[in-house]
Design brief:
212 residues, Glutaredoxin, 5 helices
Length: 212
């Protein structure tokens, strides 16, 4: 029974994608969030983009906004001492890593909201326990003010309160889908299997539409 459930989590989104890809004319499109009021010089709509940032990953490498180039990225906010939803979210992301293991155009970025504790060594040990492939799934840490800035209205537009860590941290449980132009394409409940399946399907639609 357990094997059947696990198999269905992989097979059903794949079946839906293959059906769209080979048996229908694909009229599906993934929305682009947060259009701006002004237009480009060509008269096109300008959309909100993730601003510049600078973090450090588990190998002490600099990670900045260039990580989005030529890739589809799933972003979440977490911390290693999280007593709440983080383990479930990480389990979902591990599934995502497995599903897209052979696809170098798909990546995961997990940003710690507890950078004072989640130093490089701590994040590295945490990612190793999860079995994260750090070429596919990167954990990053950095300055607390920058984490707050990038998570809220100027960046991913998610709620974040760091009143008391770890007892009273209020961070979003959403996964954020970002395209190669640093535009937000979707939000998904990181604890819901149904939402996870939707995320997998919409990643595949983005790829099929050549919207890296």
């Amino acid at each position: 029974m357990k094997k059947a459930i696990l198999a269905s989590m992989f097979v059903l989104p794949l079946f839906f994608y293959l059906f769209l890809r080979f048996f229908t004319t694909n009229h599906f499109s993934i929305p682009i969030y947060y259009p701006q009021e002004e237009l480009s010089a060509e008269g096109d709509t300008i959309y909100h983009q993730i601003p510049n940032f600078s973090f450090i990953d588990t190998d002490s490498n600099l990670v900045n906004q260039s990580i989005f180039a030529n890739r589809i990225t799933v972003v979440d906010f977490m911390f290693t001492r999280c007593p709440g939803p983080c383990p479930k979210m990480s389990s979902m992301l591990k599934q995502l890593q497995t599903i897209f293991s052979a696809d170098t155009a798909i990546q995961i970025l997990s940003i710690s909201v507890d950078p004072d504790f989640d130093k490089v060594k701590v994040l590295k040990e945490y990612s190793e326990r999860l079995g994260a492939n750090t070429t596919k799934w990167r954990f990053v840490t950095g300055n607390k003010k920058e984490v707050q800035f990038i998570s809220k209205e100027n960046g991913f537009k998610l709620a974040l309160s760091l009143d008391s860590i770890p007892e009273n941290v209020n961070h979003s449980i959403k996964f954020v889908l970002v395209d190669s132009q640093k535009r937000i394409r979707g939000y998904y409940d990181g604890t819901s299997q149904k939402e996870f399946d939707r995320l997998v399907t919409e990643i595949r639609i983005l790829k099929s539409n050549s919207e890296l």
